[in-house]
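ok here's the first one, seq then struct tokens
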Amino acid sequence: MHAYIKEELLNQIKANKYKPGDKIPTELELCKDFNVSRTTVRTALNQLTLEGYLVRHQGRGTFVADQKLKQTLTQTVKRYSDQVAIQGKEAKIFVLSITVIPANEYLSQQLEVAHNDPIQCIERIRKANDEPTQYEIAYIPWNVAPGITETQAASSLYASLKNDFQVHVAKTIEHIEITLADEICSKHLDCELHAPCFYIETLAENENQEKVEYSRAYFRGDKTNFVLSEIILVLRTIRLDSKSYDASHRS
């Protein structure tokens, strides 16, 4: 019954019977409407809250959450700021750090560079209306775009590659997983520890099929959904266990 109630409420939200900011009926009212126990209703509401469709305020009630940020999965289609602006939100990109590191064995394989070649490591947080939606670590070989600045990283990185370094990203391959927020992600995304997140690895190539960027990105599952465009998408499934989370899949 809780699955049925969840589906009914979700259909009403998506049909705009309940709009963002609207207060939904109380638990007691829903119990009467569906002729079920309070526990059943609470389970349905908890699931919708976890998935980002509802937000619960102590002493005030349960409200429909703001619509999730829609993003085109591949970054070669539209800039993040443009996608966010269309939805009436303000996009911001915060650069946490830009460092130069030697390529380890894994980065050497991904970016097809020699071991210990200099790689620029760029950590960023993307926000929509001051709410963090994405934490990203991007790796760009030094010889592809030497000396990327904070100003360049704080805008569209792919646009900066094209305009400032004449590097055109012609193709991206994305691997997407469902994962749980660890301590670092929880801090940067301002979400609870072990909250569900999308985890996406991206490998970008230029028109000569040369590797120009590799990135790892974490998206809040309750704030983001994706629009699939003409891309190569590889889906991988991992087991989510909130009691014993093995982060080894990220290495």
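and now the second one, same deal
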Amino acid sequence: MQRILIVEDDKTIAMGIEYSLKQEGFETYICHDASSCKKIIETTSFMLIILDVSLPDGNGFELCRLIRSKSSTPVIFLTACDDEVNVVMGLDMGADDYITKPFRIRELTSRIKSVLRRYNIHNNGKALINIGDITINPTEAKVFKDHQEIFLTALEYKLLLTLANHEGKVLSRNQILEGIWDVAGDYVNDNTLTVYIKRLREKIEDDPQNPQIIKTIRGLGYRVGE
């Protein structure tokens, strides 16, 4: 069963999301505060977590940090605030998408399916990709650095895979955007791509300030490898 956790203090909104997701065949769990969320993620695994930013005893950003310290479970933020700083902050913490209230339930379910599709991207039968001390296993959608697994969000993984599949070639920002996003996404644009590049470098580079894997080719784009 595909389990989704809904962390939302507004019971009406939570029930509406739960009803719609059940109609789509998902098994749903609801938490109305941060403390109950912390308890359930210790004992139950989920394929995706929907996090309200404002909670009575905490906030979604804190929960996202906790979730990311334990797993790479996809996270979608719900919030009444569409301030760009909050959007970028959420994405920079490892969220996979960010949707503002009020929203249409159909839009949310579309975003959920989009994120889940990205997490299930597999190049069946493709050999391991090695770039320096980084190894990508496309069959399992996993990335390792010095044989230690690195937890990447779906977009981070897809970004790395897009660059790695064109090793030695310079990709423009537009080419990268075309490779990592789909019709359901609103927040990966030319500006937020910089956030993803920065976050990915922080995870895979020995020295993110002097990147040796993902290189910036000034005025042209980015390149992996020579």
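notes on #2: The longest strand covers residues 3-7. The two ends are 44 Å apart (CA to CA).
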